[in-house]
Amino acid sequence: MEDSHGGRAARRSTRAASGSACCWALPTALLCAYGFFCSVRPSEPFLTRYLLGPHKNLSETQVFNEIYPVWTYSYLALLLPVFLATDYLRYKPVVLLQGLSLIITWFMLLYAQRLWAFQLLEFFYGMGTATDIAYYSYIYSVVDINLYQQVTSYCRSATLVGYTVGSVSGQVLVSVAGWSLFSLNVVSLTSISIAFATAWFLPMPQKSLFFHHLSSQRLSCEMKVMDCKNGAAVQDHPDVQRAPGWEDETKVPLNGQGHSAEKQKQKVDIAKVLKDLWQDFLQCYSSRTMLCWSVWWALSTCGYFQVINYAQGLWEMVLPSHSTDIYNGAVEAASTLLGAVAVVVVGHIKTSWAMWGEVALALFSLLIAAAVYVMDTVHNIWVCYASYVIFRIIYMMLITIATFQIATNLSVERYALVFGVNTFIALALQTLLTVIVVDASGLGLDIFTQFMIYASYFAAISLVFLVSGICSIVGSYRRQEQVQSRSPESQ
C-alpha cells in the first residue's frame, strides 16, 4: 500500500512539474517566435537607398533633416506613457500595438509618396520602437523568478537571430537574386504580419511589475487548483514552481468566490504606485556606482542612436548606391554577430569594475570616438564599414557591462525603472542633439559635419569619465593608506 501511495504521489508530482514547465514554455516559445519574425526585416539595411532611389525619389535634405528626426521626437514623446501603459495594461495589448505599428510603418513605406506621409510613417516607427519594452518585460509576468535569466536569453537570442537572418537574406536577395528594394519591403511586411498574428496567442498575464503586483506567496496560498483532465487536486509544494500571473485554462480555482472577492478588493492606486516609483528612483540613483554607469548608459546610447540612424546616409554619400553594389545587409549582420561574440567574451572577464570601470569606460569611449572619426574622414566605403563594425562591437560590449553592473543589486522592478529612466534621458539628449544639429529648423548640417560632431561627443564622454575615474582611483588609494596608517596606532 505504501508503494502504491508513493507511486501515486510521484505521478502527481510529475504531472505538476510537467504542467509548470508547460506554463512557462508556451508563452516563452510564442514570444520568441514573435520576436524572431518581428526582427526579420531584410529591407531595413537598405532603407536610405530605398528613399533616395527611384522608388521614392526623395532628396537628401528631406530624408536626413526632415523625415528621420521625427523618429527621435516620437520615440521620446511616447516612451514615458508607453512605459506606464505597458505595466497598467499588462503587456499583451502593448505587444499587439507594437506589431500593428510596424505593419502600418511598412505598409506606408510601400505606398506613401508625400513628405508628410513619410513623417507620419516615422511616428508609427517611433511607436513601434517605444513599445519594444513590452516585448522584453512581458515574459517576467508569466514565469517564475528563477527562470528570469534563462527566458531573457531566449527572447534576446530570438531577436538577434531574426535581425541577422533579415540582414543576410536582404543582402543575398539584392546582390545574388537581383530583387528590388520594393520586394524586400514586401517580405518585411509579411514577416511582421506573421509576428502580429503570433502575438494574439500569447496568454494574458494576471500580474505586472508595478500596477498589478501579486506576491508569489499569496498566489501559492490562494490559487490552489484542480487538474480538470484527471480530477486530481494539485497541492502546493515548495518543489513545484508555478508560473506566477498566468492561469492555465485547464485549471480553475477551488474557491472562486474568494478569488473574485479578492480581486474586487484589489484596487489599483495609481498615485501610490507613482509615489513608490519616485522613492525607488531616489534610492537607486543615490549610489555613486549606479549613477556613474547610468550616466554613461544615457550619454553613450544617445550617441549610438544617432550614429546607427544616419550611418546609411553617410555610406550613401561616400559611395552612391546607384553607381555600384552595396553591402549594408552583410555589414549589419557581421556587426551584430561579432557584437554578440564580444558580449559572451566580456561575460567571462573577471576584474574589479568598481575601481577600474570608469577608466575602462573612458578608454573604450575614446575608441568609439576614433571609429566614428575614421568613418567620417576616410571616404572609403570599406573603411566606413569596418569602423561601423568596430563601433557596434565596442558599444554592445560596454552596454552589457553597464547592464550587469546596474542590475546586480536591483530587483526586477527597480531594474525596469532604471532602464526606463536611462533610456528616457538618452532620448531627451538625442532629441536636443537632433534639433540643433540635424533638423532643418535648426542648423540642418550635412552628414559629414554631423558625424564629426558625434565623434567629438564621444571624445567628450571619454574625457569626463577619465577624469572621474582617476579621481575615484586616487581617492580609493588614499582611503586604503589612511586605514593602514591607523592600524598600527590601534595596536
Strand content: under 5%
Whole-angstrom Rg: 26 Å
- Described by the principal axes of the CA atoms, the overall outline is globular
For the report, how would you describe the main beta sheet?
3 strands, antiparallel
Uncertain spans, ≥5 residues at pLDDT below 50? 9-19, 215-266
What is the percent of helical residues? over 70%
Write the element-wise H/E pattern from the N-terminal end onward.
HHHHHHHHHEEEHHHHHHHH
Structure annotation, total helices: 17
Alpha-beta classification: mainly alpha
> What's the count of strands?
3
Strand order of the largest sheet: 2-1-3
If you average the pLDDT, what whole number results? Answer: 79
Distance separating the two termini: 70 Å
List the helices and strands and how they pair.
Layout: H1 2-39, H2 47-52, H3 60-88, H4 92-111, H5 115-130, H6 132-138, H7 148-175, H8 181-199, H9 216-222, E1 225-227, E2 233-234, E3 251-253, H10 256-265, H11 270-284, H12 288-318, H13 328-346, H14 353-377, H15 381-407, H16 412-438, H17 447-490
Antiparallel strand pairs: 1-2, 1-3
